[in-house]
Amino acid sequence: MNAVQVRSAERALSAGTWLIVAGAMLYSILTVTPLAAAHTPGRWAWTAPILPLVVDAAVVIVVRLDAVVARLGGNGGRWPIALRWMTGCMTLALNVADSALRNDLVGVAVHAVAPLLLIVTAETGLAYRRAITAAVLALEVKQQAEREARERAAIERRDDAARRAREEREHAAALAREQREHEARMAREQAEREAARQREEREREEAREQSERAERERREQERERREKERERRDREAAERAEREQRERAERERRAEAEREERAARERAALLSAGPATEKLPEDDARAIVAAARAEGLSVRTAAELCGWSVGWVSARYAELREPARTVPVDLVSLGH
């Protein structure tokens, strides 16, 4: 429960208590005034409402002061208790007296409700206020403890912050010192690396120049070697081509000689049969005519050998004289 809820409960208790007190006072005035007027001389009858007002005023004082004392957490002692019970008993007696004198038990019970409710409400309200006061005090103590704890925590945080700030300053100073040392070391290392890099570059440049010279010499040697190899291959190719050409010419010469020799033998075989006694088949006649012409025989001799007419043989001789328009005759196939 927080302070807002406590204040809300206290306001509800105060409102309820004063509502009950106001109702009880009004009911008491209306009930007690006729009783007081009946027991007061006639010329003083107007003073009848004063008695319930005085008693109820005492009740208001008791309720109000009890609320203040309870709110402050104090204790009024025996006299407030005596006043509270005396006013309560007086209010109860005045409210039930008329019914009691008339022996009206129901009226006694009815008129006792308001005074009894006022008495119990006063006691209960006091107890509630004391409990609320105790709760408020406990809440305030708790809040005070929390505030003190927060303050201590804030102080500790400030101390921690100050300590961290001091440590951070010290750490920053140490880092700055280390940074300066590191930068100086890095500068020395950079200078050493630069010197080493320059040496390496000079060495690489010298090595590159040597490599380029060696590569140029190697390429020159390789070019000379390829040139000699190409000349050797060209020479070998030329020699091989010349040799192949001679061999091919020799083979062609031999083949031509063989063809000529075979053709001569075939012509001799065709012409050796002598004059034909009858007309030979056209293919055989054509073969004989071709052989006769190749041997330089006359048209008549060729006609005698094949048995065909001189005109037909002359026509064949004419065809053989036109090689572009005639088809070569295979004497072997014609002879067979």
Structure description:
It contains eight helices and no strands. Among the domains are: 3-160, no CATH class; 273-335. Helix 1 packs across helix 3 and helix 6 (299-306) crosses helix 7. The model is unreliable at 324-336 (pLDDT under 50). The protein has helices at 3-38, 50-72, 78-101, 105-271, 282-295, 299-306, 310-321, 331-335. The protein is mainly α.
Q: Which structural traits does this protein have?
A:
single chain, 336 residues, elongated, disordered C terminus
Largest sheet: none
Query: Class by helix and strand content?
Result: mainly alpha
User: How many strands appear in the DSSP assignment?
Assistant: 0
Distance between the termini: 143 Å
User: Approximately how much beta-strand content do the residues carry?
Assistant: under 5%
Assign an overall shape: elongated
Radius of gyration: 78 Å
What's the helix and strand layout?
Layout (H helix, E strand, L loop, with lengths): L2 H36 L11 H23 L5 H24 L3 H167 L10 H14 L3 H8 L3 H12 L9 H5 L1
Helix pairs in contact: 1-2, 1-3, 1-4, 2-3, 2-4, 3-4, 4-5, 5-6, 5-7, 6-7
Short description, anyone?
With 336 residues, the chain is mainly alpha-helical.
